[in-house]
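Troubleshooting: if your tokenizer reports a length mismatch, compare against these two reference records.
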Amino acid sequence: MAPTERSMRVRIRLIGAIFVVFFLAVAARAGYLQLVMAEDLRERGDQQQQRVIKLTPQRGAIYDRTGEELALSLEVKSLYANPAEIKNPELVRAQLAKVLDVSSKQLQQKLTAKKRFVWLERRLSPEVAEQVADLKLAGLHFVREHKRYYPRGQVAAQVVGFTGLDPKGLEGIELQYDSDLQGEAGLLISERDARGRGLATAEQHIRGGGPGGSLFLTIDRTLQYIAEKELARQVKASRAIGGTVVMIEPASGRVLAMASQPSYNPNATNRYQPGDWRNRSVSDSFEPGSIFKPFLLAAALEEGLLSPNSKIDCENGRFKVGGKTIRDHKGYGQLNLHEILKYSSNIGLAKIGKKLEREKLYSYLRDFGFGEKTGVDLPGEENGTLHAPERWFEIDLAAISFGQGVSVTALQMAAAMGAIANGGMLMEPYLVEKIVDGEGTQIYQRQPSAVRRVVAETTANLVREMMIGVTEPGGTGTKGAVVGYRVAGKTGTAQKVDPVTGGYSVDKTVSSFIGMVPAENPALLLLVTIDEPQDQSYGGLIAAPVFSRIAADSLRYLDIPPTEAVAKAELPEQHLSSKPAQVRTITPGAPEDKELSQMPDFAGMSYRQVLEAMGSNGLNIKLTGSGKVVEQSPRAGEVIRYGAKIWVRFGA
């Protein structure tokens, strides 16, 4: 075969091979685009043909344990403009500037923008939306979005938290359960041409979107209100810088109330300092002082080192340890364990701590949960401080024995004392009882969780019995007593560390009282702390009365019957009433110097207007029906009494 013919055949085969490879590549590419990239390309095509604006998703609601709303998302209107449809931007700007909370300069820039869509103001109040609609200006449009609203105002504010404009949770439960509450964002869609211009004939519509899950908390709105009211009252009266109240159900670990002062209104967070948003019950730690002493007694009894009747020489009020002098507020001689706790002897506890020694005491304190987070479902929880025993000097062992040199959070202390109330079993505190999805289907149910057994039931019962003496005549916590019930409690007055000198401050203290009631079978456990009270600082004088008032009101609200017979003459003055079943009047939202409030006139109001009035007045009202208010009870102007049924009915 001639060379020319052979080379020709090679060329033909080469060209054929190239065509085959090219054909296979094209076929493979076509298959890839049609089979693999089809969905992505379809979305790209839609994006080129449509303008898509992401709307605010509807977050799920947050309820208290009785089903009362603590947070919800209201449907509101947002305003946007299509500048291409506006013939006279200056006229529109002048009219809108009178209504919207937007500067005239910003409005001018938006109304003359080379765009087909600009937000003017989102999530308008119903009144403002109505005013804008009445203007009937061409080029202005509304779309429905959702706005977070807290109908109870300040009640449980630091627990519930709040959201940003996104809306994403920024504090509290809103932050901790953000992914559960967050709904699916709807999309505002409008058609546009190949150059990206809006089509005049195209209609805008909303696609997708759905509500998030809703949470049911262990918090009881009424108990929370009682705690907040009494705490705020004492913080103000004692001119303190703050305070906390934690109320738990010791048998389960449910947190029934958690109050902090100062507080804030989550509907208007910009009016408050960021420090007011802080949930001090989990984020702030303090030296507990004498409320720490029952744990030392529990450890000594559990180890069998002492019996309740064991005598300790309290050295007549002065005792040297490691070169330092420990003092009692009064000189005592021989005291048994009941008396040591009742009179709160530092010297007696220091000697008991010496019997336990470092390793054993540290082990028990860790078992009670000190030095680690409780695991509560809230953000920002602190560990507290409990140094390893190898770092303790002799004076450290003594100081820790009566509550100095160790720091705790309020919730940590309440949870630990819950083990004494609960027969020696430490329970994990929690706030969310259940979660339901956007369709109302329950997807989560929390069950009480035991962390560990710390001491035997007999030991816990012995300590609880000793704590009863604290509130009986001669004890340091008599003002923590509750008429008709036995209270097991403990007072505390702890000096604060001076950040400048590093030593203990001479005038700054944390006053506290922790107690459980009824003592025989505790249904409630409360811790009250008052931070830096003025004039008086003893926990028995400052914090114990707050405990008494909160416990008394809470027991009545929960219908827990008295465990002891009560003569009328024994009732404190504030408890005397012509109606024994309603011995004190509590009015949510009422000024502190008033005990009664009047029912507003809701006639003709919309559902949203009633909710806003409820929030501003702190009222808890049952709402039924739809439309405008047609009936209410009590009638407008009538006095609202705590415990009375308050309702509003809507109709066409």
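Reference record two:
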Amino acid sequence: MADNIIRQSQLITTYGPGAMIDLPDYSIIVSGLQDWSHLRREKVDEPRLAAKLRRLLDLPSLELWTPPRHEENARQAAPVGARIFPTWFIVKEAKPSPRDPQWRRRRLVRWDHLDRGRFRDEDGKRKPVVPVRFVCGCRRGHIDDLDWRRFVHQSGRTCERPLWLEERGTGADIGDTFGVCDCGEERSLYEASSPGTGALGHCEGKRPWIGQFAREACGEPYRLLVRTASNAYFPQTMSVISLPEFDAGLAAKVSAHYDRLKAADDLGALQNFRMMPELDAAFADIADETVLAEYRRQQGEGEREEVPVKTAEFEILDKGDSIIGEDDPRSRFFAETLERSAWDPDEETLLAVVDKLVLVHRLREVVSLLGFTRFEAISPDKDGELDLDVIRASLAETITWLPAVENRGEGIFLSINAEAVERWLARPGVQDRGRQLFEGWRTWAAERHRPEEGFPGLAYVMLHSLSHALMTSIALDCGYPASSLRERVYAGDGGYGILIYTGSSDSEGTLGGLVETGRRLGAHLRRAVEDGRLCSNDPVCAEHAPDSQLEGHSLQGAACHGCLLIAETSCEQRNDFLDRALVVPTVALGDAAFFDWPEHRSR
């Protein structure tokens, strides 16, 4: 890969181990971590993420490192290895089929039969080739060359005569593409397009990104895979927002009274530390467990009790302090809670559901790659967690480290009133819509053998839809392209909120435009609500039923590219679990909207 420069972040999100890259003359598969250079990389410090990944992968220890950097004009070998895949090619030159001159056929050849990357035909001329479009794989990430001889010869006979890929239509439709042998046997690729036919045999567990002979037990039916298709590689990543490690004010208080707390601890009376008047006065407004947790931290004992990724983030963002973190260029996190009078001067009814607005001037996001899937993407759940039992392909035979990148940027956080959400959830119209959305989820989950418990809940779907509407509005004013904005939706036991942020590995994510936009939250929320009432694709969009059998839309209600769908890189659920009917009244449904009170209608 020396001549093909890939950014470090792309090795996490697009071209990680097991991904195929189409080059002009051949295709490659990115090698596993065992073939990544240990030079020109930096260690990433994020204990919370490392602990999560260590538990997910059941490892005794784990470190996070950036992918190795490529340096211009470097004399060393490429920092990330790759292997030729697939190893079947077709000759570029097309010939008429002997059966019908209008049909085009191209010779199928193996990589080891090529002469310096070209095929030497019977006439002795060297002819250019390109890698074949089709390979086979399974949901566990395994991948292999399609066994063309076995596929074409359904009779099971052994034949070594020339093979051809024949196109019998005017386009590249798979139903018009045939594998043909000079012996007379042929087979349409359409027969291999359905995973239930068994036309391609069963998976042998091959992992060419790890090694030529690397494999593991599998046995799932092989499925036809177009190597350049979007479902050929789904990276499985986990991300966290770096949080202040401790409350500096509390830490100073505990440090000042550390000797007295230790004396109580030595006497076995730490739980009753308030019996000492000076300690009771010093920590009068702080809960006992908070004081003791900070004391244990300063003692160096134990780790914080593990909580879901988003729960920990929400606790920090929604805390009562007006200032969170330190206003220092070296700080990983700095935010301030904006006074309500600054963003809601007229006490708008529309903004009554927003409890708090936090301007995040500085944040650091760490994203790590821990595996990948094919055919179906696996996203984190509503709490930012990944399922322990999920099927994922490993990045190497033995994992001791994982690639990670740091993104620095800014954002705005909205805390939504929990009582308003609970009242909304109790409305009959909302519950009816919820049953429709859940039936859509059940249909989707049953087809993929997923548990029904994975549905994120109505509150999440509503907040997720509101987040998309807000991002669309904010993108018009903040100075960043819409595709650079990202979201984190909080709808767990801790509370409800939305973080809209941007970040990059350079200074682009810290220009201040998003924070300034947050000061005009009222205008953007009003625009998002008003624009959501009518979609350019209505009434078709508004009338879509999530429990219908419409292919690919069972996880969406009233949502399309004309209203809620955004760039998938910006969405934490790949544009699933969206329904603007839960946010605002639509032309088809008016009794399930969160923003649907008489005073809202009059504005």
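Descriptive notes for reference record two:
- Residues 428-447 form the longest helix (20 residues).
- The first strand starts at residue 20 and ends at 22.
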